[in-house]
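Hello K.,

You asked for the raw outputs rather than the summary table, so here they are, unedited. I folded two proteins back to back in the same session to keep the settings identical. This is the first:
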Amino acid sequence: MKATLPMPAGLSIRIALTSFLWQAGGTLTSGVFFNWFVQEAGAKGWMLGLLLALPDLCGLAGLYARPLLQSGWGRRHLWWFSTIVSRLFFVCMPGIALLHHDFPDPQTALWLIILAISLASVFQGIAFAAWSDWISLLAAPPLWGRTLAIRSMAMIATQLLLPFIAGAIRDFAQSQARMTGSNQLLIMVYAGIFLTGVLLQLVSLLPMLALPEVSLAQVRRSTGLWATLSESFQQPGYGWLIAHAWCLGAANGLTQAVLAQYQFQILKMSILPMQAMFSLMYLIQLPASWQGGQFSSRQREGFVLTVGTAITASSMLFFYFSSPQNWWMIGGAYVVWGAFGAVNVAGPHMALRLSPEGDRSASFAVFRLGAGMAAGLSGIAGALWLSWLLEASTPENAMAAFQMLFLASLAGRCLASLLACGTWCSQKHREN
């Protein structure tokens, strides 16, 4: 059944504002700041890798959004409820970290953080699937490319300044901790940054408050989950798209923790040049996102995914040939990663377009959250593989261990580009 809702006025502006606030909060509660936060709480080794991978591993719970929608939940209400519950679990983590010295066993605090982030990620996966399905019905399909591009650009914009500010606060707290010999102030600053991020993410719900719920009559109740997924896989190119997304997720995840370790331990880079390279990457991703939306609106997603993934795959060569003497070479990797701006718009656009109309939550979850799960599992495998290689080598040969993972990731990224070519060929065959 086709959606009959008129497109709400100011939808793109509301989505941009929500995405900006959400990503701003996400910057302060994930990635490098979450990494620092849990390490101050005592996480290291395999437990650190598990904590970093959990959000991706638990995200596939978004598949459960569809049964909830079939049971009577509205997309808008399910998104609101799941997001709020998810953030409430996130709020527990700063408190656990602040009190971790009071636990008889320091590992107890880490296991509680693992429990909190697991539950938060489950509810967030459901929220994301419901949100994507809701927005796909509110926005007219010809405007999906523009809408997704605006959302991506708003999220990228937060990365240009916010990490510098939060990083400066963190560096100040770290210097004070060294002077006083106590890490309590540092943990309190981390907790403050973390809580600020959660608050921003809760505020991000407000711009969408005035948008209407989609009629429950538009949710297909008679079709089972596997029948819905089977319908999607029968669409030309959907199977290739899923294979591409999961392969790219695994290839990216393999070096998720490895790249940061390589830049700090082998190249001996400081925070400032790394932040400058990230800023350059995000500046390139802004126009790339817009172009990705333009190509997607003309159903040229296969071309964008094939070429964009091939460009980003070359990043591993810059890391492979870098050394402490020519560390600046990895700047080339950040330049080509700018193409992810287009890839990250074209992939979701194609996933929405090939999913059953009015029933996209499950098919989209397999694409987006399934790729995240592949990245999480691969991230753990990459960390374990690197640890094994480093233990088996001498300090003088440590770089060779990293280079082996760079080559493995390069192979996976090239394979992902070939799989994306399958989506492109399917589109061409359908047009002919």
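The second followed immediately with the same parameters:
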Amino acid sequence: MSGILRAELLKVLRRPMTWIALAIVLAILATVQSLLIVLAFLPTPEGTGDDQAGPARLFVELTVLPGGLANGLNFLPGLGIFALAVVAASVAGSEFSWGTVVPLFARGADRRAVILAKLLALALVTVIWLLATFILAFVLSAAASLIHLGQIPLDWLNFDMVQELAIGMGRSLLAMLPYLAAAVALALLFRSPAIAMAVVLGYIIVEEVGLAALTALRPIAGGGLGQLIGLVDAAAIGANADRLTGLNTLALSPLAQGTAIEHPYRAALILVAYTVLFAILAILALRSRDITFRPA
């Protein structure tokens, strides 16, 4: 298993797409953070006082330490998941188009072990991406603190906060695992990274738009429709992922103080269940495929 894991990890790390996609994600994060820093210089609306109240104060809290670190933890499960899903589908689907899966099974590799190793390798790469986005967010937040506060505050940095940041990375990772497992499962099921990308990315987009619409309708919906909206909100991958990333914002951003996150432990269990379900689907998809071994 360790040898297969090393091989799968090398496959992902040696793919230019892995690092090109990460560079794009970091560039977008830097652009968004820089824009928020600039927006903090917006003039304060009349009647709000002279203490940076209103929109300007909001943008300051979103960018300085420690509030800006929430963007580093949550950016990847939010916008960055599109890039990660593409990488995951490409890694799994290209096994058939490139024919690299044939010599692997010719050496007697267990198909279940290959799937688990592939998912673990993608999870490790996701951790690398998370560390990269977090480091960039820290640097940008430190710069924002110098600009807006005239100093880099570190009084918030203690053992409890370090522990919270580590847990926050775990939350962000768990929020992305179902999408990665789904991309792998669909790529193996259809033997096509393009189909897997289309389905997963399409689902994410529909989910984002649909959940926003359902959230807007929920206060006025009643009866069966209200129950249906509640069921969708409780079961959707994105809604449960948002609950976990919301805990990151609650722990780091002063703006989120007093916000209640409903059923975070249930959300974590649902995301684990989705990940296991898609992993099983990937194993079954690979086992059902007739891999042709060509004679030397």
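DSSP finds eleven helices and no strands in the chain.

Happy to rerun anything if the numbers look odd on your end.

Regards,
P.
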